[in-house]
Amino acid sequence: MELSVVTGCLAGAISQDPEDVIQGGDVLNKQASASMEGFLQANAPPETEVLGGPCEESSWIRPPVDFLKCNWDASIDGRSKKMGMGLVFRDSSGGFRAAAISNIPYITDPEIAESIAARWVVSMCAKLGFQSVVFERDALVVVNSLLSPSPCWRICGGIVEDTRRMLHQFNSWTVKHARRSANQVAYFLAKHALSLVQDIVWRGECPSFL
Predict the structure, then answer these.
(1) 13-203 CATH choice from 3.30.420.10, 1.10.10.10, 2.60.120.200, 3.40.630.30
(2) CA-to-CA distance for 73 and 99, rounded, in angstroms?
(3) pTM of the model
C-alpha cells in the first residue's frame, strides 16, 4: 500500500512553511510524545554522485559511513481533507539526527500527496544542510518516479520534475525502496502529523516517542 488513509476527524490548522517551528522545547515535545504514544497504542551537476537504485529492504539498514538515511512517509485523512508527512534522519551508527512532521490541508489525491511529500522531504534535507543522503520510501512508484530519466507526464509531473532537480543540490544521494517494516518510524510520524496544528522539526535530541 503506497499511502495510508486515516479515518476520523482530526482538528487543527497548519503552518505550511517547514521552517516555521524548529522545536526542541519540552512543551511541544511532551505534547507530541503524548499524542504519539496514544496513537501507537490505539539536469545534475558533475560532482553529484547518484548511488545505487531501488533496493527493497525488509528491515532498517544503516547507511554507508558519512551518509545519512532519510526515511519518509505520507498519509491522508479523507474526512478532514488533509495530508500528513513525516521524515526521520539517522546516521551510519543508527543514531538519530533529525525528524520533522507537517500537514497540508485540501490534499486528498494519493498521487499528488506522494509527490508533494517527496518534494517536502528533499527541501527539508537541503534546509537542514545534509549533503550525502540515502532517501528511503516504502512506495515503489514514488522511488521509480524520482529515479526515472524520462519526463513525468502525470498530473503531478511538475512536482516530480522539481524534486528531481532539487536532488542534484546534494553531493551524493540515492533513492531506495524498502518494505513498510523498514519504514515504521516515518509511517508513525506521518500519521501523527495529521493531528497537529503546526509543523515541528526535531534536531539533535530524539523525541521520547521514537
Answers:
(1) 3.30.420.10
(2) 12
(3) 0.73
